[in-house]
Amino acid sequence: MSGLIYLIGLICAIWVIYDVWVVNKRLDETSKLLWTILAVFANILAAIIYYFIHKRRAY
């Protein structure tokens, strides 16, 4: 079970880092760095927060 949670956390971190650096052109370098650090240390929580702050606003 812990392996599944680790895998989900890894996928969430990779998604946030990819979206911040490649897709989201509106963010400045400092914000990108802060999101990357947050994604590394709090991956699932960072993905949820990032989704509600940046992705839902686009729709």
UniProtKB/TrEMBL annotation:
Pfam families in alphabetical order: PLDc_N
Keywords tagged on the record: Cell membrane, Membrane, Transmembrane, Transmembrane helix
Organism phylogeny: Bacteria, Pseudomonadati, Bacteroidota, Cytophagia, Cytophagales
Transmembrane regions listed in the UniProt entry: 5-21, 33-53
Family matches, as InterPro entries: CLS_N
Location of the protein in the cell: Cell membrane
First-listed, main subcellular location of the protein, grouped into a coarse class: membrane
Protein name: Cardiolipin synthase N-terminal domain-containing protein
Topology of the protein relative to the lipid bilayer: Multi-pass membrane protein
